[in-house]
Please model this.
Amino acid sequence: MTEPTGPSVLGGRIVTDEGILDNGWIRIADGTIAEVGEGTPPAEPSGDLTGRWIVPGFVDMHCHGGGGGSLTSRRPEQIDRTVATHRSHGTTTMLASLVTTSLPNLHEQIRSLLPAVRAGHLAGIHLEGPFLSAVRCGAHDTAMLRSPDRESVESLLATGEGAVRMVTLAPELDGSVEAIRLLSESGVIAAVGHTDALAEQVAPAVDAGATVATHLFNGMRPLHHREPGPVGTLLADERVTVELICDLVHLHPTVARLVARYAGTGRTVAVTDAISATDAGDGHYELGDLPLTVSGGEPRLADGSLAGSTLTMDTALRNLVHSCGLDITEAVAACSTRPAELLGLSDRLGSIRAGLAADLVVLDERLRPLEVYKNGCRVTPEVPG
Model:
C-alpha cells in the first residue's frame, strides 16, 4: 500500500492551522514532518509545484467500506481493500463503522477488526448500533435494535480492548443516558444519532457526556420551529461536534453551509458514511445484512431510503469548497483537524506542523489528489485484488 521511501521535501500552497503558506515547503524525515516553512526550501521539492495544494491527510470518523470491501465482513482482505481504497483518496486515518446486528455477531466483527487497529491501518471502531431508534433506523435491521444496558455496553468495550472509540445511541431509549455516562467515563465518544428524540430527551444525553451528532439531519427527527428535536438541540449546544455527509445527496449544499457557518471549524466534521460500493460502481450490495441497490452512485434500500454513501473524503473537501461555500482552511479543518482532535490524535496527526506524522495529500488546482503520503511514504493508487 505504500512505497518504502518518500520525498524529503514537498512544496506548494500549504494549508496549516495558522493559514495558507503560498510558497510553502515541508521537510520530511523518518516519516515525520521535520520542518514547515515558506520561501526558499532546504532542498529541491519533488514534483511540479504549479497549482499544487498540500493539506493534512483526511480523518474519516464514519466509514463502513469501500472498493467492494466491507468492514463488517470479518474478512481481512476486505478490510485491507477498504483501507486501501480510501487511502488512495487521501484518507490516512479512519474509524471502522459497524452497523446493527446481533450482539454475538457484533463481538465477532469487533474481534476481526482488532488486527487492523493494532497494525495502525484503522484508528479504532465506531459502533453505529444496535442502540438506535426503530423509527429513525435507516439502513439498520429493526429486528436487531435494542436498548442499551450496562452489561451489553461493558462487554462490547471489553471485546474491543480499547479499540472501540465511538458509539452512536438514540437518547430516548431506556438506559441510554446511563450508557452515555458509562461511555464518557470510559474515554469513548458517545454520539447521538438515529433518533426520534424530542429536545427534552436530547439535552440530558449531552449533559451525560454525548459530544457528537452522528450525520446531523440524517437518521433523526427533523428540525421544527416549535420542536427543535435533536437537530436544533445538538447544533445549538457548543459541547457537540456535528458530522456532515457532504455528498450533496444527504444534505443540500445550503444546509451544509448554514450548519458549518454556525458550528464553525471547532465543531464541524465531514464524514463519508461510505459503504462497500464506494469506488466499485453501481449494482447490488449489502450493508450489514440488508440488501441495497446503487444507481448513479446513490445507495438505496428497496423502499428508496438512503443506505450510506459512495462518498470519499477528497470529494467531501471539494464539495465543501466548491458547492457549500467554505474556504479551503475551513474545509481542511472539517476533513482533517477537527476529527483528529475528537479522536485524541491531534498530537500525532491532523495538521501540518513540525513533529506530526507526515500524513499529507497533494492536490491539484481543482482539489483532486495527485499524491497521498502516510508517514512520509507515498500511497500507491492500486487497491488489492
